[in-house]
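User: I'm writing a tutorial on reading structure tokens. Could you give me a worked example: one chain, its sequence, then its tokens, then a sentence or two explaining what the tokens reveal?
Assistant: Sure. Here is the example chain.
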Amino acid sequence: MTAKISLGIDPEELASCVACGLCLPHCPTFRVTGEEWASPRGRISAMRQVQDHGMAVDEAFLASMDSCVQCRGCEPACPSGVPFGSMMEATQAELARRRRVDWRRWGFRVLGHRRLLNLLSRGLAVVQRLRLVPSKRLGLPKIPLAQERLRTTGDDVWLFTGCVMDAWQRSTHAAVKRVVESAGAGVALPGPGAACCGALSLHAGLEDHAHALAARTMKALEGSAPILVDSAGCGAVLKEYGKHLGTPEAVAFSERVQDVHEWLATHADQLPSAGNRDEDFTVAVHDPCHLRHVQRTHQPVAEVLARYATVVTLDDEGLCCGAGGAYAAMQPELAKSIGERKLEAIDRSGANIVASANPGCTIHLANAGVAVRHPLEIVDEVLTHDR
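And here are its predicted structure tokens:
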């Protein structure tokens, strides 16, 4: 790819970075490479060269953009409020339009079709049992052959179930649903129209597909009830539908979205108390990037968990684990290097188990040998034991 292009980035956004470097310690790819091209500052400089000065989009530019895990850890650290996430999304959208071959354009379309995804997932589960696929090398979890059926129990709240998580980790949804119901709420489940939030498509630059999925999801979750999300990545995108679609309906929809821990923290008085808690049971909380840096509502995870376990905070200031949605599959070496820093922080914590409120993080950490669960799976186990 050598053509000169406009990246479609707002010029004011592009000019907002003053290259102060305060973002550098918070960028996982810069921390593992030490290279300017792998930093937010370096990537923004390259974007300027392309958009403002006509620099050709070459392999070095593509490598710089594609190596970004899109954790957005640089945003809270930036004193100028540089919206790096939206700049990356605009860049990836333009690059996606110009790539002639991109498997993600076709692969991600499956995510919006629940029955097809479930069928393919069951086939992959069979292949795994026959040991015909290198699951660990591909970053895959053990996919279940069968899934329990979830049933609506009321209309107080919606539980967004999504695509890959519903196909591979529905037991997590079941645990989350039981915890929410234990707080006295009836839980409604969306139909196939809300089969995918569009997060993976958006991060890959497949803007039109992401917007189409967003429109379907909004239609499937009509009404005024809160929309609870147990996947940090999905929640971040659902909360930004207003920004991405730019309609009053999308803004109103996004205002209804809450991370499930965010909702539970405001209903803590309705949650059952723990019985005889094991004081030796220590949980380290890994904050998913899209919960900490995008939604900026990671504290409720520890608040809810602390009612049922001894909680410790990792000392890495929320550094990314390297999962990044499809990032670990696309950039395995960088993802592994990023993850090593997380593993060191986990080792220092002395915790028995790690809690992470994002499916990609749990899969990535589990493949690295970490005992990791969704926070509400841990809560559900405590409550089930006490019943």
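What the tokens reveal: The two ends are 61 Å apart (CA to CA). DSSP finds 23 helices and eight strands in the chain.
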